[in-house]
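Example 3.2
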Amino acid sequence: MGRAIAALMTLALAASIEAESGPDCQPLAGASLLWPKTGLRFVLVGETHGTAEAPMLFRDLVCAAESTGRPIVVGLERSVDEQPAIDVFLAGENRDAAATALLLQPGWNSFDGRSSRAMLALLEALRTLRRQGRIAEAVAFSAYRAGDSPAVGERRMASVLMAAAGRHPHALVLALTGNLHASKKDLLPAPSMAANLPAAETVSLLAVDKGGESWNRMQDGCGPHRQRGIGGDERGIVLSEGAAPLPGFDGVASTGLAATASPPALPNAPAPPACSTLTSR
């Protein structure tokens, strides 16, 4: 255990990639088209877990949302049980100790792409934004419980986002999640998280790229996997149902790049194709 904690401390020190002056957000073409939508409360970005590019594109969308002047709530598809550790990490003075405690949470040992270095980098950026008062809250909304049916689990996820929106008057909630959860159509064997949110108040965007690799769990185990390009040669937001190659999306959020696999944040993660025995969705 001592060696594991020492390794996590080393990683925590090395992972401070965002200066306290602010994350290195880049302008995101088309983002300004989202904000005038009447009644908009929720913007979902559905990704393929385990790329370096999608979380950073989402970070840029969060920064772009500042222009609305509304309280910004950021949703991450991490276990609700991790919320206390996330809160300490985002707000605490002792960043290294908080990062170590965060990475000791069970979810970082589940190698489905959500425990990637890119996800840790996104949390680093959110930490800076939170400490500067530029976002109101970051909420973990993966709320499946043992024995839950897909219908119950998806409703739980949506309810966490609804509750977070309710804590901040006039809030705008931006959430990064797997693409099946973000589709308003029945791509899952039950109504998705997106379908459980108010339709008139929700925009779902599919994260697209030019192909490449993602680091996640598939039938052959955990590790880098090739993925086909699904459009999006130009970086930015396009609001058009026809722009998304999957049903149930109002548009796309394109990286404009080929995806690169983002490996697990933990320094002692098992080598591919080994996977954690933890279950995840």
